[in-house]
What we know:
Blueprint: E1 5-6, E2 9-10, H1 11-34, E3 39-42, H2 44-54, E4 66-69
Amino acid sequence: MADIVIGEVSWERMVNAVEKVRDRLLRAVAAIEKASLTYAVCGGHAVAEWMTRADQGGVRNTPDVNILLRR
């Protein structure tokens, strides 16, 4: 995919940034599941997942990964 630049915006950089956070979430969840821990994804990713059911246009990106672990 070629880097599309409109004004000062690089769409490829934006997509890559979102993919990096998604990959971080997937790696974290894979490690937690491998350890057989009870967890829940919370924060922005949980809201985004819910929003995909209500209004996909309302989904927003989040730069962090929030995971709730049982003690």
